[in-house]
Amino acid sequence: MKQFWWPGKVNGYENLELREVPVPKPGTGEVLVKIRAVSLNFRDLLIASGRQYVGDALQGLTPGGDFAGEVVSTGGDSAWKAGDKVVATFFLGDIGTGLTDEVRLTALGAGNQGTLTEYRVFPASALLRIPVHMSFEEAATLSCAGTTAYTSLLCGPAPLKAGQTVVVQGTGGVSLFAAQIAIAAGAHVIATSSSDEKLKFVKSLGVHDVINYKTTPAWESRVLELTAGKGADLIVDVIGGESVSKSLSAIRLGGQVIIIGILGNTSSPPDLLRKIMMKNALVRGVTVGDVVMFRELMHLLELHKIKPNVGKVFEFEKTKEAFQCLEKQDFIGKVVIQVAKD
């Protein structure tokens, strides 16, 4: 089978190598899966660049976390059967007891070998069935981006309520998932982007109001205008740095800022602590979520027949081009790689 990897230390996606290795065999309690599609996340770029994500990346690492595939065989003691269409929880060590430091080190494509390989063995307990209304390419976006969005909105100390106002930033995978989930939950959704074309697309998903932050740099003031001076109830911040200060200005008294990304400057603005205090704000960081949240997400997606937005699809041999596309951010939704073929 074919597999991408870094011989030795991780050293940039441009240095990934494609090799031939034997197809692995599942042991007791394990399942052999043919990987049909893999979606890329910003964390894959962080790892490829050598920056620490959560713990150190393995030597000789195969990258990739999100995937969708089908069961080939089992090692016995499993309810899965050949042909079942599956995804896996993002943290392979997550057995439903919540996230711990130890569990977070079991993430695919970092502390565990990843999914940019034609076949991979998984613990049977880590697999979930793909929603019937999704393709492999769509389902490959769920475990990281989808669960992150769901955890941001509907988990934690103050879950989103119907009628509240949510702001999502940009048109990447997590932001679009957050918009779709918030709409399904009955929230009023405001989306920001630097592109009118992308804003037109998010309006087609049901987003209520849009702001072009390139033509309206003080987008936080526009959020206040759209909420009659009150402010948003919750903002999903994918930028970090100075953006967090603007997000705090745009929320209501007692509102929430959920930080799920560090696309911008990671240094803290000098007014950050003051704004948090004066707004009585709840500021929470989210790194994906646990398997319970993933199962709840899958139920919501099936109930509302929500489909993920796949922006661009690449053939397996063009994996480096897929990473480059992700780096340039010239797409809407998710970048997906088709892996094993029929």
UniProtKB/TrEMBL annotation:
Pfam families tied to this protein: ADH_N, ADH_zinc_N
GO molecular function: oxidoreductase activity
Gene3D superfamilies associated with the record: Medium-chain alcohol dehydrogenases, catalytic domain, NAD(P)-binding Rossmann-like Domain
Record-annotated Enoyl reductase (ER) domain positions: 12-337
Name this polypeptide is given: Zinc-binding alcohol dehydrogenase
Lineage: Eukaryota, Fungi, Dikarya, Basidiomycota, Agaricomycotina
